[in-house]
Fold these 4 entries.
Entry 1:
Amino acid sequence: MKSPFSGLPDRVRPTRPEVVALGLSLFIAGVLGFVLAGQILSPNKRVIEALMGIAVLVAAFMLPSRYSVAFMLFIIPFPQNTTMGSTTVIFSYIIFAFWLLRVALGYERKPIGGGIEKPLVVIFLLFILSFTQVAPGEMDEAIKRFRIFVSSIFIFYLVLNLVRTERDIRFVLNALIASFFFVAIVAMTEIWFPGFAHIFSVLRVKTSQMETLQGVRVGSVFGDYEMFAEYLAIFIPMLLIRVVSERVFLRQIIWLPTLMLAIMLLLATATRGAFLSLIAGVVYLTWIARRILNYQKMLPVLIGVLAVFYVSSIVLNQYTSTASLFGRLGETKLVRGMPETRARVWSEAWEKIKEKPWLGHGPYYFAGVDERNVRHWYPHSLFLFYAYLVGIPGALVFYYILLFALRKSILAAKAYASRRTDLAYTVVLLSAVMVIFLVDEIKISFMRYENTQQFTWTMLALLIGSSRIALLTAEWEKKRKERNDAALG
């Protein structure tokens, strides 16, 4: 069959869609630039915000979804508040809506599920029912927190549908690590140049350096040293992925200082729970990856990590006012089998949960003015927090989702436990991340803040997506081997 354009003169060519998109993008950029330039002399805050909103809408639709999602992942740790909600919440709704539109128009691949759709629907319905328990004066805040939960689910499915190949895994990791660098810069400024930390207020980025009886504990953009510590404990295995996956030694040298920086910052938080969770993750990692570990190479790495811990501890103790992690570990006491800092709050939180065990108190909890002034019965545990919000059934359903993700990651790790490939290292280390998260959430809850909720759902999507890729690849390789054996036989 002849091309419909075969009869046209040689100089005439059909206009390609990407050329039209480029032309339209340049036209819109020119108009926006002209109007914004006029705002330099007589700036109007609403005009600028409206123009930036239009720019985001155009970019979200015209750019491939992967770049919109990468931008959203980068800004998760530092949301900016607006009258309609935070920027991250708004972007997640916009990007998700345009992704669905692009799927409907055929510009994106068909969506895939994560295998947790049924329990997610149950939790969603339980959140809706829990609104009946919210006090009238707290309804606005409850709706706001519910919007954050929905935005986290949108982010989960955006990342899950982005992660379809090994290249996509690296793309998501790069976006998260780029964000980590900015978070680390804020934290390092708080430690070494505390007088200059206010410069980040120009970018409307929160900083948090909290004075305690033991010394200063760094919270960076999260405003909470415990959540920042969990963030760092999760990122240490993720940075290890980049170290072990690099084949060129010079590139490994670039990533090693970043890994050391994460370790130093973890020490600067002086958070025992995150440190012990990291140890649990390393123990699990050693067991699950025992067949692919090169012990001759691992011994120098282990010695190097211990040296970083020791030197960083001395440097922080001698030249900063940060609290001592190891000093706090030595002071740890147990009360009725519980850590002394949790025994009372866990007991009091449980009494509050028993007041409304089936539907909970609704999707809002006022923690207090800041970390040092929380209510005594604040639920310092993920299970207690979820049970307080949506009841014990909701907490059990959510823990089922976490255990589903853990089981899937363990199956993927076992499928590659005897291989030394980039995918093997990735799925094994991400499986260790899940263990670190579960152990640390025993004494804290990612539900406390917007950015920690969205980051956690991002990691769940990355974990489930990479596990799916690994299991499908392993199944395909198994069938190919069987076909080859049958042909030879």
Entry 2:
Amino acid sequence: MPPKLESFRDFLATRGGKLTNERKAVLKAILGFHDHFTADELFDSLRARGDKVSRASVYRALDLLVSSNLLRKLDLGENKGYYEQGFETHHHLVCASCNRVIEFAAELLLDLDGELRKRYQFSTAGFSQKITGLCHECSQTRNERGSEE
């Protein structure tokens, strides 16, 4: 059994739950994503693969995967929950026009994390920064429209 499936099975067992075929299908589909995804994108992916999983089961499985620390849920805008597998420290630039998400790492923010730990004796468990603005393409389009007026 792959390590993430085994870890999820063990987590479920501590809560009196089982690793059902639906939950296995959800986790296997998630492993195919290499970027942020929404519950709807995951559901569509499962259906396209021919898996018989209800939308409600997808949402419940996602909640359990977040609780088990196998996934992280993010607020990147659009009033949607986004999910990602990676837990390495990184941050997000979110385009306010097209909703494109660009991941980045920033040493300055890591320095800030260290300073907060030192100054407030606060043991952080990690953090994620979301910065909104315009991506290059949307910024160019807006500038081109502005010069035409």
Entry 3:
Amino acid sequence: MHHIKRLIIALIILPLLFIYITKLPAIYFLFILMIVSALAQYEFYTMYGIKGLLRFTGILLGMLILYFIFIFQYSLDPQKPFVTDLAAIGFLIVAVIRLFYKRKPESSLRDIAPVVTGIAYIPGLLGFQVYLREQGFDWIILLYGCVWASDSMAYLLGSTIGKRKLYSEISPNKTIAGLFGSILGGAIGALIFKYALADMLVLSFINAVILGMVIGAVSVIGDLVESMFKRDAGVKDSSSLILEHGGMLDKLDSSLFAAPAVYWTAMALRLI
């Protein structure tokens, strides 16, 4: 019943997102990424008890990083380590604010680490979706379509034939069968979108399968990483923002890892 409710919500939200992504210019996709990033960072910082100025600074820096990635993406080359500069600047700002915001040195690393991790983890990884969107909205559709197909097939196989646990210390419900289901679902999803988006997304059969399998495998890792953070923080969901789906971070976890994996794989295959 729980999965059925999630499916109903997805069937309502996904068509709206599809229209938004495909009918509007790339700048509008940036806007929604910035909003999603801010919400997910808020949840992440709440999980770890980061409040006040440090939380606000982390969220603001995350949104600015996404904006600057969008503006300066054409400058990304080995001679201009733009992303490295952003990471360094972000750390410097957070460290200096902590220095003067709290005069006692105790717990300074425990204050700074979650803020910097939240910036790298959420807007830092979301930035790869900016790169993918610049190649065409079809890459974003492929990314999220395959993540959804991976999740659905993982649930189907995991709940029916899954017995052996994948990583019980982190996620007791995940099984090895579910992992294979995720990889299979990603491959099937990629093949579906290869033909559905044939006029825009030029992929060979093999390249589509490779991309889909990468998405399926990495999606599970992304889910496990978020579960690790949640268990460390002692929470079940990052929030209850999206009702049956949990929080924004709960919905992003797989795509956060899948986007850079797709981008790097597509570059290795000379697709972009």
Entry 4:
Amino acid sequence: MRPNRNPLAFAAIASSLLLAACGANPQPLYGPMQQSYFQALGRSSGSLQMHVMPDSGPDFMHNAVTRARRSVQIECYMLTEKTLIQDVIAAKKRGVQVQVMLEQHPYMGPNPSPTGPNQSTAKTLAQAGIQVRWTSRKFRYTHAKILLVDGQTAFVSSANFTYSGLNKNREYIVTDTQSQDVAELERMYQADYAYNSFTPSATDLVISPVNSRAGLFELMKSAKHDIKIQDEEAGDPALDQLLKTKLAEGVHVEALLGAEKSTPAPGEPYTEPGNVVTGRTWSSYGAQVRFQSSPYLHAKAIVVDGQAMYVGSVNLSTNSMDNNREVGIVVHQADLINPVLNAFASDWSRADATAQASDLFPMFGT
């Protein structure tokens, strides 16, 4: 049966969608790529800005929506941050075209429930006359976090648009005014809004489920000296083998993974957290692995040789690369890479070589 697309129809989601299968051997969508796949696209000076959260604070995003004159488009996993919601409503009131796409059933939210976080936001926005639509069910989850303003500015984010995402977590958000990138994301947005297929063309954008596995693997394969990974959630057999190969080649790998603990339901057996398993595997190959709990690690970043970097919503997990709608970007500019390296170094100094501390729930704080 075709899923109900009514934005305020809170139909139950199949239980099979609640948990990603991380153990299956993934089938890449593309063959080998050339080294030039992620070359910079001749950006004009200042077309990209990096915001390291929570240090930067969310004012840059609020200000962009406040200044919007023609359009505001949001496609995201979670939108609950009250000030941003009011910014969007105020934009609608002054005549800006506003469109919002939300994931109907975020994992670990109330599944399913007409009172879940995005359902409440959808009601609030719809009451203000804003077009709200649930994201396509052809994706396991729409886990992307993008905001487009006036067809001129795109925010590519690891952060959910929640209070925790914009004020508490370690996150990386890129402001992108490069016309080619913005046009590409606008094209993706319109395809997703209409539940149509989309094929990326701009080579610096990382978009699941189409090109993120091939692109991110190619980025890591290009490493000659070192790879730094900072990722909330990692787990993928092919990635394990890639890192094993790079380590055997003499590439130094440092990985910060989200600190987790598993709290089983009454009567359920204990299951070791996925990042513990992944960290142990990578360590056995020679990688240095630590687990970050403060600030809460929700970022997703890869830096190769200090010269090329990915940031975005794509976790290094099978589901995130192969089944979700995700958006990230690869950059080569030192003024973007260095702030992330500085944050990585600071977080590394506080992180633990054993997985303990907080569980996964804080990232869903509203």
